[in-house]
Every structure is written in C-alpha cells, then in structure tokens.
Design goal:
single chain, globular
Length: about 375
Amino acid sequence: MRSMLRNRSEPGIRATGQPELSWRADLAWVLSVGVLSRAWVFGVAWLFNEHFGLGRSPLRLLCSWDCGWYEGIAAHGYQAQPPDHPLGEANWAFFPLFPLLARSAGWATGWGALAGGLLVANLAFMTGLCVLHRHLRSRLPPEAARFVVVALAFSPYSLYFSAPYTESLYLMLMVCAMHCAHQRSWVWAGLFAAALSATRNLGVFVVLPMALMAVQQFGWRALLRLAPGTERVWLGLALVPLGLFMFMAFLHHHMGDALAFKNVQVAWGGTLGNPLRVIWQAFQTGGLYEQYCAAAACLGLLLGIFLLARGWQPEGLILIIGVLIPAAVRVWSAPRYAFALYPVFVALGVLTQVSPRLRWLVLGLLVPPSGFLIASWVAQKTFMI
C-alpha cells in the first residue's frame, strides 16, 4: 500500500523538474490498484462464505438484493404487466443499460446473464478508475490524485463496484462525461451523459454540473448569444436526456406508461418529499440504521458544500444532487448512493493535502469497515439494500 501513495512531489505542489510517468506506467499503476481492491472484495467474501458455511457459489457470491432484478431483466427482459407480487413490485424501476450490457456480455461469452453482469461491472470499474486518475492528474498534485484512486477503490462501499449493480457503470460514465466536458469535448460528454441517463434515474441530472462547467468555460452571456464554439456545448447538453427518453418511449409502448419507472416506486414505499425533512425525521423517529443513513447523507452534503467552496463546483453539485434526490424518497441506501460517487473522494483528496499523514489515517478508517460490509453483503443483511 505504501508504494501506492509514495510521494513524487511535495504535498499540495505539482512536481517540477521531474518527468511525468508515462501513460503506460500510470495505467499499470491504476490497474494494479483496481486488481488488488477487487481481490480484497472477492477474497473477504469467499473467506466469510467458507468460514460460516453459507454455501454460496463463486458466481453468486456478490449477487444479493437488486442483483436478482438485474439478472432477471438481462435474462428475460422487462415485464409486460405487474406480476402477482403481494407488493406490486415490477422490474420497470430498473433502468436498461446495465442489464442490456450484461445480456450482451453473457451472450458473447456464453457464460449467461449473471456472469455477464459481473464482467461488465468489474470492467466498468477498472475503466472508471483509469479515466478518473487521468481526469485528476491535471487538477491535483500527483500524490493527491493517487490517494483519491486508492481511497475510492478500497472504500467501504466499493464492493458494489464488483456486484452486478449499476454503481460501476454509473461511476465510469459519470467520470467520462465530466472529463470530456472539462476537455471541451462536448459532443462526447453528451454521449456519455446520455448513456448515464439510461443507467439510473439520477443520471439525467448530470446536465446540471455539465451546464455549470459550460458557464465556467464560456460565460453565460456567450452561451446565450450562441458565440462561436458554443454550439457544440448546446448539442452536448441536448444529448443528455436521450437515454432517459428512449427508456420512457419503450415503457410507453410496452406498458402504456412512460413514467412507469417512477410510478412503480410506490411498491417499495417510495413517495417524493422534502429531502431535508426526510433526513431530519430519520434522526428524530428512525431506528439506528435510519439514523446512520441520515448521518451519511449529512456528511455527503457537507463534503459537497466543501467542494463548492474550494473551486470544485461541478463535483460539489454532483455530490449534493446525489444525496438530495434519493433522500427525497427515503434515506435508505443513502450511504451507497453518496459514497459510490467520486466527488466524495476528491473532497478527501483536497482535505488531506495539508498533511500526507492524514491520508494514511483516512485509509485506516476506510478499509476495515469495508471488510465488515463485504461480509454483511454476503450474509444478505437488510441494511445492505
């Protein structure tokens, strides 16, 4: 681990007088971090499974909760009508891009939908790590950029990046969209964001940090008067909801309800409310887990505000949106939604620039809980939903 964080420059200062590592060396380093972190996740899961005799096969080791929904969509498609389920739950709530890719990977390899989902999730995570490191190299000191990658890879909720969930695909597409926007490749940014809006219902909201970045680059006056070069910005922003609209068109054609993905949330007890009130009520009347989720949401909001104040406004906005929108329904899963977002770790990277020793303290606080959460996931504890 120490070699992962070895200084190449003084903390908080870009390296000068030293040649940058080649892109191949950077790529090899990031991939090694990704492989080690996935070995940690699968290793802990397998040891816990074997020690307690849970009897889960290697393929289903990380398949819990929503994994079954994604596997079902990948294998059989969407339901044409609600099943005979006591709660009226239906798979319309789950967006199509991840199960479509899982189905394609399972067909291409001959391994089936579940194995395809595992393959897609882990490849997307590795790709997301590589793009994230490249994105941060120009904005943070080399040491801080490396810390962000390591902290994300070994964070408590990083197990979701290896499970057949949307977290890894969402991370990859989010980082790609923001990196392309930062590089002023706005059409590519829009295409990645369109895929993001087909991955999760929150994906379409990436248009807000992208629009903020456009204002930072061109100024709002230039954007409004369509100054030269801004037409590609508008095209990129217009592409963002394309994935969502395609899913809505599919739902309207097959189910007769373009908003079925939202309306079916009632089956899970999901009703829209004031997110701040929902968080406050969780503190007042919720159980221990609800209070933990509310505290995680508050921490995410504080880190988002910190990023806004430190010049990372698009990332801060991503984090605030990623906390408030899910909290408008319920605080359950708030830790997973918040701490699978890369801006959390950017905030930690900025905070720890004052002292490299703080990075070791932060990693020491992140890694042990990840082992507990991996074991809880394998045991299918309800607080891991």
